[in-house]
């Protein structure tokens, strides 16, 4: 998701999602475009009470390489923003109005034993990843980039969280691997 696991858990535990939904303005003075096909990211924004449209970035993530995870997730989120902005310009999707349009893009990777792991490319790779985490730990690095399309201003940040795993039984691994969004 676009929030770190630590922050998402904290938000869930404290009921902040409900509070955020109550505090979210009903008549926003800005539009939101979520530049992601991630169901988890959609759910976070929806749970906070925001209305938004969704546009996938359709970039070749493997063509963007960085030596460290923090630089990689920011570069990927920025590349997603650029790709979507390019599509918006060619389709005149941005109409002239007084409301700002915010584009939110994000990326997340895991770092396991010093190796950056991106989305698994197959169910077998997903199974290997999950099995390797069993009883161990991994670092999750996520980024969020918000671009004000109306004003041309962009801000981004990354967050790093350590995740510790109990032993993961094979039946749980099977269930996770067969879950529809494991490769998305």
Automatic annotation (TrEMBL):
Organism superkingdom: Eukaryota
MF terms (GO), sorted A to Z: hydrolase activity
Pfam families linked: Maf
Keyword set, alphabetical order: Hydrolase
Protein name as catalogued: Maf-like protein
Organism: Solanum stoloniferum
